[in-house]
Amino acid sequence: MNRSTTLTPPPTASLFDGDRASSSARASVTVGAVMRQDQIERAYAERAERAAYRLDVVTRYAQAASWEAELKVLAEAARFDKAHPGEPSLYDELHGMTLGLAA
What we know:
Elements: H1 15-62, H2 67-83, H3 90-102
Helix pairs in contact: 1-2, 1-3, 2-3
């Protein structure tokens, strides 16, 4: 038997199909951008909180009236350093203040 098949091209995409795909891609990019922007804002807020905390610790250390108060602040700085290993050492900063006062 001799069968002949006629191949037809696939249906052409309409403008609407392209717009829908384009809108979908834009929507997913926008959602991703919003999530990244939220993460960036959160990171800046956390960094600002840590900077304010560091300033508070340095201020309390500078205003400590006794060596017991200084030791408490130094211990707090050591705990902070242990909790935030990637940041500059707060303990070293306080210790450096003491060395500066001795000079």
